[in-house]
Amino acid sequence: MVTKLITIDQAGSERKLRTVAAALVQGALVGMPTETVYGLAGNALLPDTVRRIFAVKGRPQDNPLIIHLYDQSQLDQVSELVPPEFYLLYREFCPGPLTMVMTRSQALPSEVSAGLDTVAIRFPAQRTARNLLRLAGVPVVAPSGNLSGSPSPTQAQHMLDDLDGKIEYILDDGPCALGVESTVLDLTASPPQILRPGVITAELILERTGLTVREAPSAVLTKASRAVPPAESQTEDSSQSGSVIFTPRSPGQKYRHYAPQAPIFIARGKDRRELITSLLSRIELEADRRLGFFGAEDTFDALQKSLSEMNGLQSADFVTYLYPGSEQVETATHELFAALRKLDAAGVELILTPAFPRQGFGIAYMDRLERAAESEEK
Ligand code: AMP
Ligand code: MG
User: Can you give the pTM of this predicted structure?
Assistant: First the structure.
């Protein structure tokens, strides 16, 4: 199969999108830009299409998919019981990077929800996603458009790198505005529970709607819970073999995620000096490995200066992915997945990068970074 890469122009390319939307309705798989990451979109009403999405991503069968809708008029196609909180949250945050979990419609193929009796629903804000969803008119499943386990795609090229020749279309509408996946909020829990942190935080939800929701369990906690499921629960036939004995609320959170080939060292410190000290002490241990650095130019300059003042430590071997100025969590979030992919492609053996405080964007950022770093940080 030849994957068609379609560049979206200033005017939005409505005519091209009509063709793609018609193919999507018929069962084609489409790389779809959203404000969070690129998604792998397919018609949610076609069981074969849903199964194909799992197959091309290599996604574990027990990790359910998010349904993407144009607006709430489509809700009755996917959910039978819409909780009152939904309308409050919809008014404040939709379209936008908030996914809400509620009771699912029996009319949906069960594969969408990986056998759960709930469904996750989101209304993306990105213009091309909205145009595609409007033109298609059907509920659309769209997991992140990467191969399972690798960093989510934030540019069309990332999807091409992972899925070229396996899907019909990729719509290129430039880099994603945010760079991390949506907040997943379970409305069947009381109080509602964040299952995956995103840029819409518990604090923001409280501030804008008066609703109290529980924070997501930390990456470290969800990692501990992974000791429970047997390894074979990740295999394709686990649902038939009855080996799944562990059903966490958000199955996706139990898998290693966002992971580059190279391990990651997260440097911590309350100010730049401590950060540099943390980086230096790690670099000292790594004389022979090819090192990568992801972070702000200012931090890297300070690091190089310290290195050049110390005997025997060479800074020339670094492969860097830098953004201008000083550490900035919104920018780091925007660049994280692209950086992991670039540094991997350059063949680095260890990625060094600073931590951010866990507030605002920092909550989702540190969740992704710590999951990506799991093989390194015990
Ligand atoms: P991705 O599509 O790669 O962004 O991953 C979707 C995330 O949403 C995964 O972490 C899933 O576990 C989660 N998710 C999807 N549907 C549900 C559901 N019905 N209940 C809980 N979590 C869900
Ligand atoms: Mg994903």
Answer: 0.91
